[in-house]
Amino acid sequence: xxxxxxxxxxxxxxxxxxxxxxxxxxxxxxxxxxxxxxxxxxxxxxxxxxxxxxxxxxxxxxxxxxxxxxxxxxxxxxxxxxxxxxxxxxxxxxxxxxxxxxxxxxxxxxxxxxxxxxxxxxxxxxxxxxxxxxxxxxxxxxxxxxxxxxxxxxxxxxxxxxxxxxxxxxxxxxxxxxxxxxxxxxxxxxxxxxxxxxxxxxxxxxxxxxxxxxxxxxxxxxxxxxxxxxxxxxxxxxxxxxxxxxxxxxxxxxxxxxxxxxxxxxxxxxxxxxxxxxxxxxxxxxxxxxxxxxxxxxxxxxxxxxxxxxxxxxxxxxxxxxxxxxxxxxxxxxxxxxxxxxxxxxxxxxxxxxxxxxxxxxxxxxxxxxxxxxxxxxxxxxxxxxxxxxxxxxxxxxxxxxxxxxxxxxxxxxxxxxxxxxxxxxxxxxxxxxxxxxxxxxxxxxxxxxxxxxxxxxxxxxxxxxxxxxxxxxxxxxxxxxxxxxxxxxxxxxxxxxxxxxxxxxxxxxxxxxxxxxxxxxxxxxxxxx
Length: 530
Ligand code: FES
Ligand SMILES: [Fe+2]
Description:
Layout: H1 2-11, H2 17-30, H3 33-43, E1 45-47, H4 54-59, E2 84-88, E3 98-102, E4 105-111, E5 117-121, E6 135-136, E7 142-143, E8 150-151, E9 157-159, H5 167-175, E10 183-184, E11 186-189, E12 192-195, H6 201-206, E13 224-225, E14 228-239, H7 243-250, H8 256-259, E15 274-277, E16 286-292, E17 297-303, E18 307-312, E19 317-327, E20 330-340, H9 349-359, H10 362-375, H11 378-390, H12 395-398, H13 407-420, H14 438-441, H15 453-485, H16 493-518
Antiparallel strand pairs: 1-11, 2-12, 3-4, 4-5, 5-10, 6-7, 7-8, 8-9, 11-12, 13-14, 14-20, 15-16, 16-17, 17-18, 18-19, 19-20
Helix pairs in contact: 7-13, 10-15, 15-16
Bound molecules: FE2/S2 (inorganic) cluster and fe (ii) ion.
Domain Rieske: 83-195
Organism: Chlamydomonas reinhardtii
Keywords: 2Fe-2S, Chloroplast, Iron, Iron-sulfur, Membrane, Metal-binding, Oxidoreductase, Plastid, Transit peptide, Transmembrane, Transmembrane helix
């Protein structure tokens, strides 16, 4: 739908002031935890129990692994005091643990026996093995695969198999602070699993009051209110791009007609777009820019720590993009589209329904549209960030931005300078991983397919179908060989059926191989985009 939405942006009419105001208002209220917390708690299940068990507290050592809660500074964004999406719920297999990174912290995620998603540091307290390689036990604890230590959702060690015959030693060890792993608050909201990356007691306290960054209506029961609801499916991809560079890119609508020509823009229709910061919106919570994209007008906004919103009044769609700092040189991207039924547009209802139907075939939507959009610029960003680093991240000196279209990029950079402080995964001195080849940057399997329920199933289906088609082709060939061995003429009516079957199977194998490649890697060559 993003593709359709962006195409409509180019052709559409001016924005509606009501939607415009709504964007501005949403940004402001987001920083009022009480107002939004009420909305958030209606649909979200937040895991905010205290992290100390009585038994552990009684030991005098406490169950909370050492953690530092950052000192508050009102004008500097507190990166560790906010919720971040770490996974799409429908893609997270509840039968096994999952590995991810957030703000440079390795995390193991799993669903416990009470049905709560849990997040702990992915590092066993025994000898540092990754807990995400472990097993979810029947009692809901996470068992380390190396020596079998078990941990609950609060990070406390509950069982050490090697001390099975010494109950006292078992109790002492499990009550020791040193046997604990850091545990982080989690909640499920708007189809995503969110983590607040502060394992301290203060972090768990904050979890009950800080709302997730989303359009409030989407957090209502059923994910819909006031005519606003999600349209189509969630998409996520790990991207080998530094967090601030990806944020800068996602807040830059001027690149759409060029980097995404033919996918969500047209390079031949650039007529002088512009983005202008609404100066009164710039603050620690983010900012709003007015955007004119070759005619249509709307807003593009940044809602720290991760949400970028595109709203154009002539369209009933709002584009939500989440940009999450995962680890140095890597970000995770999430996108979704919101339908605002209150906005009247020229797009006929049946057309909207058809697009929704197609976009709900997730694997098809992902390989034919979502991947293509990211493939248009990921490699350029991967190279750009290294060149900027060579200039000590001095964007003012390294970039030359004379056009009004650069307004939102300047605003983004200003926000990071004035409010970002030490941006996790991008702090001065953090080294980027070595530059990757274009093939590695654009590979799809590890960045998306293996983590996407529908794409991984589609890939398995394609591979099975390929084997069946190949088997059919071999059978058809064997029939022809048997006829030849038996001395029967090959150019006979009886040979037509096996020959045709062989040709069809061969063609099918070729088509399926091409489809399989869509889940693995597809090159993106701008010169070839006519
Ligand atoms: S490293 Fe986890 S139990 Fe030994
Ligand atoms: Fe997918």
